[in-house]
Design a protein that fits this description.
The chain has 731 residues and is of the alpha+beta class. A 4-stranded mixed β-sheet has the order 19-20-22-21. Strands 1-2 form a two-stranded antiparallel sheet. Strands 3-4 form a two-stranded antiparallel ribbon. A hairpin with a 4-residue loop joins β21 and β22. The relative contact order is 0.07.
Length: 731
């Protein structure tokens, strides 16, 4: 380099090293940028990025007369800008001596005595913290190699980590890794000498960077595959859709081959089941039926999925459902049995004492419904922030995450704008653009992707995982933001949060005590169990000796002198693994959930929000669908007779005496398989009209039903229309 005299080629430290053969000139970009006696007098395409060749020659001649105060050699082109300071130095020498170079405005340079420093309150405790980029320890001291976030109290960084992140993220994506602040954070980092290049992020410039991640396992591994088109055949939104193992993702099954009614049901492959069985955390559920004395109308409520040979039955159905009038239920009905929502302990109790268990389950369901009504009112209040200005998101359903991420990060996106979804890979584009079903489907696919993504770990109740790449790309913030937007804009809730994760978000991680069930790593869980169930001091010490490296890395080593010390040790390991280890992703996730004020409402109404974030939506029943719709009719229509046909049809659908399900009916009218937490806007209605076939108006959430003379005519028209309409949409 003609300015510093070094041959080093290190773009991260000295900028790009450029050689111009025609001018016999080699120069480091940073050396040129920070030199005190040269300015960009040309256009961008002239000379070296606007520095004219003649000006560079003059600067080299000027610097040749100046001696570096650090290495004592000639050619010191950079001077300290502090008044009365005469120090000069080369750029690499200044880096070595911990000078500060500000890559902004006038590109000022400060020597080691006059450089700006960060100020810390005297009352602030000194100690060690985690660098939120590399997660190694960092000393909380005002030194050159350590920087503190100006917007977060407990965010500390290595200077080298920050510089590498700035070079990778560029000016558009470089921000605080904890709170996502951009303006205040960048201003402070520029003041402290971090170079933030004016370019797009490196991961945005790499061609097909995420191509390998888009490969999904699609093969049915069930011993007896029922699909006539082969094990590799996959048809979305049908019984031949392939569901992957929720634990390993490397095995699959067609929904029909494992007798699954819904894609949202969990499924584990045999290998994962055997691992769970060996660790003692998995027990195969057996069919248990209610006592025969409790049968109603000669039917039995089973606590597990029916045989594939049984008639098709809507989930959560009960055959003894009798309807009197719209929104009125028979008072002596048994509540529906749902094996997915009942804990194992409740299932055993139900077999022994069905009346008591039914009563408790009925009360619990009633309480959950009350909480969900409260959440609906809260979300409707938050939705008042949404204005009529429209933001269109172009979504590829086959690449839902990347297209959603791109849409949420576009400059004109605002959570307060009305969101319009356009599926770019949809054949019938005009229909996809105008139907409210597009938005329902988008948020449903997005929540399903998040549930199965690397951002979360666990089987059904999930905690945040530690994904370094996701931390680097700020994906935890985006995930929290997407969930908040989904809730307020009428999408589904996640429904897979563990109580520990929910409590960390609401009450703060310092007030939460995790349990062994929160540990998703099988090896870590086994280590904790060995410590927890050690029955003597010698066996406890032997176990600690065997896992010494793990305990040391977790910072959980403590002297053990008595058997009772194991309880504190287990508690330390759980807090480290479940909470402290993911403190940075958790804080980013919390910041994302603050979008539209959702986190604040969660903290004000924890019980209500727990009902939608920690529990799956209540399975549809005839009662639920009946209560959802309000019946309207013209003056010349017999409202009572039409309502009787409608309610009788719901009863048949629920009892499995129909080719459609309650979910199909809801999808036909609203475009959604389930009822969103905020409810439907506008509220679903039913009209009885002189028409030939039923019509589902998804813009108005209105079901227009034909007036028929007999119930059989009504049923046949309903099934013909709904089945063929949904089949055409899937094709």
């Amino acid at each position: 380099c003609v300015l510093c005299g070094r041959t080093d080629d290190c773009p991260e430290k000295y900028g790009e090293k450029r050689t111009y053969v025609e001018y016999n000139l080699t120069v480091h970009y940073y050396c040129l940028l920070m030199s005190s006696g040269i300015w960009q007098r040309g256009e961008e395409d002239e000379g070296v990025d606007g520095f004219l060749i003649t000006d560079i020659r003059k600067e080299v001649n000027r610097a040749a007369k100046l001696t570096c105060n650090i290495c004592k050699k000639k050619g010191a082109s950079i001077g300290c800008v502090a008044p009365k300071c005469k120090r000069s130095y080369h750029f690499p020498c200044g880096i070595q001596k911990e000078c500060i170079f500000q890559f902004m405005e006038d590109f000022r340079s400060y020597c080691w005595e006059h450089k700006p420093v960060q100020k810390f309150p005297d009352r602030e405790s000194r100690g060690t913290s985690q660098c939120t980029i590399c997660l190694d320890l960092v000393e909380q001291l005002p030194v050159y190699t350590v920087l503190k976030s100006p917007c977060c109290k407990n965010a500390w960084f290595h200077r080298e980590c920050l510089q590498y992140q700035a070079l990778s993220a560029g000016i558009f994506f470089f921000r605080c890794t904890v709170c996502n602040n951009k303006d205040k954070f960048q201003k402070e980092m520029l003041r402290m000498g971090i170079h933030i290049p004016e370019k797009d992020a490196s991961w945005e410039l790499e061609e097909n960077a995420y191509q390998d991640l888009l490969q999904c396992y699609q093969h049915c591994d069930i011993k007896r595959c029922l699909c006539k088109k082969g094990r590799d055949y996959n048809e979305p939104d049908s019984k031949w859709e392939i569901k992957r193992c929720q634990c390993c993702g490397s095995r699959g099954t067609h929904l029909a081959c494992s007798s699954m009614k819904s894609w949202e049901q969990n499924w584990e492959c045999m290998e994962c089941r055997s691992i769970f069985a060996k660790s003692g955390s998995y027990s195969k559920q057996k069919k248990r039926s209610l006592a025969t004395s409790e049968k109603t109308d000669g039917t039995t409520c089973l606590l597990e999925e029916p045989s594939p040979k049984c008639p098709r039955q809507s989930p959560g159905s009960q055959r003894n459902f009798l309807l009197q009038s719209p929104k009125i239920m028979c008072q002596n009905n048994l509540p529906p049995c749902s094996h997915l929502e009942l804990p194992a302990s409740n299932r055993v109790t139900m077999s022994l004492s069905p009346l008591t268990s039914n009563r408790n389950w009925s009360l619990r369901k009633k309480h959950l419904r009350k909480q969900r009504r409260e959440v609906s009112n809260i979300l409707k209040e938050l939705k008042l922030q949404v204005n009529t200005k429209t933001t269109r998101l172009n979504i590829n359903a086959e690449n839902i995450w990347n297209s959603a991420l791109k849409g949420f990060r576009q400059r004109n996106f605002s959570p307060t704008n009305t969101i319009e979804i356009k599926f770019t890979n949809c054949k019938d584009r005009s229909k996809a653009d105008t139907s409210a079903a597009s938005k329902h489907r988008f948020f449903q696919l997005l929540m399903l992707h998040l549930q199965n993504s690397s951002l979360f770990e666990g089987s059904s109740a999930k905690n945040l995982s530690l994904d370094f790449q996701a931390v680097k790309e700020n994906l935890y913030f985006e995930a929290g933001k997407m969930i908040a937007v989904s809730l307020v804009h009428g999408g589904p809730s996640p429904g897979f949060f563990s109580k520990t994760l929910f409590n960390c978000l609401v009450y703060g991680p310092e007030n939460v005590k995790p349990a062994l069930e929160d540990v998703a790593d099988v090896d870590v869980a086994q280590t904790i169990k060995m410590i927890k169930y050690a029955n003597s001091l010698s066996s406890l010490q032997s176990t600690i000796h065997n896992c010494y490296e793990f305990l040391a890395a977790a910072g959980c080593l403590r002297p053990v002198t008595a058997l009772c010390d194991k309880n504190m040790l287990v508690n330390d390991i759980l807090i480290h693994h479940v909470i402290k280890r993911i403190i940075s992703p958790l804080e980013s996730f919390r910041q994302g959930l603050k979008t539209l004020g959702v986190l604040e409402k969660m903290q004000m109404h924890p019980d209500a929000f727990s009902s939608i974030l920690c529990h799956k939506p209540e399975r549809l029943s005839a009662e639920t669908v009946c209560d959802l719709f309000t019946i309207h009719s013209s003056s010349d229509v017999n409202k009572v007779e039409g309502a009787d046909f409608w309610m009788g049809y719901l009863q048949d659908v629920e009892s499995g005496e129909s080719v459609v399900t309650l979910e199909d009916i809801l999808l036909f009218v609203t475009g959604s398989f389930s009822i969103p937490p905020i409810g439907f806007v506008p509220e679903p209605t039913i009209k009885f009209l002189h028409i030939r076939y039923p019509i589902g108006n998804r813009l108005l959430n209105c079901l227009e039903l034909p007036i028929t003379k007999t119930y059989e005519q009504f049923k046949n028209k309903m099934e013909f229309t709904i089945r063929n309409t949904l089949r055409a949409e899937r094709q």
